Amino acid sequence: MQSVVNEALNPQEKVLIDQAIAEHGGRPGELLGILEAVQSANAHKYLPMESLRYIAAQTRVPPARVYSAATFYALFNLDPQGDNVVCVCRGTACHTRGSRDLLEKVCLDLGMSERDLDDNNEADKLSLTTPDQRFTIRTVACFGQCALAPVVELNHHILSRVNERTLQREVQALKQGRK
Ligand code: FES
Known about the structure:
The structure is a single chain. With 179 residues, the chain is an alpha+beta fold. The protein has two domains: 2-72, no CATH class; 84-175, Glutaredoxin (3-Layer(aba) Sandwich), CATH 3.40.30. It has helices at residues 2-8, 11-24, 30-41, 49-59, 63-72, 92-96, 99-109, 114-119, 164-175, and strands at residues 84-89, 127-129, 135-140, 152-154, 157-159. Strands 2-3-1-4-5 form a five-stranded mixed beta sheet, with helices on one face. A hairpin with a 5-residue loop joins strand 2 (127-129) and strand 3 (135-140). Helix 1 packs across helix 4 and helix 2 packs across helix 4 (49-59). Bound molecules: FE2/S2 (inorganic) cluster. FE2/S2 (inorganic) cluster is lined by residues 89, 91-94, 142-143, 145-146, 149, 151.
């Protein structure tokens, strides 16, 4: 496995990971800290498979454990993320206040078909990125702000009691680079 890792990662990427390991190693929750730091340093905010293998090799944590941590926590991405991230809550409170319609509308506005949505219809695990990598649409099981439903997060900014018109306006502003 080590030789594959060495071919796949460039020296700079390895240095970044080594630094994350040096910073978080030996602390409680070190694996999660390492994964978070490595993802945050990645230009597309995700954890490539070769990075996971390298982390496993360097920390001597079994690769299956590294992979299962990266897949278990919603905060980690295994695919490249778009420049802008739209995250629609699909929890019960938001669902009853129309979050499915919001999700469909934003997908259509960004040129994705209902088929894309249906092909990825695990409500709390959707992650779709536009071919130009400008937008990623995700879903979350609950933001913990149910009184403000429906809730949508745009680039880490929470919007509450969202309706289709508001969401369309916000996404349009991002498309035009006004935000
Ligand atoms: S269900 Fe959407 S914030 Fe809780």
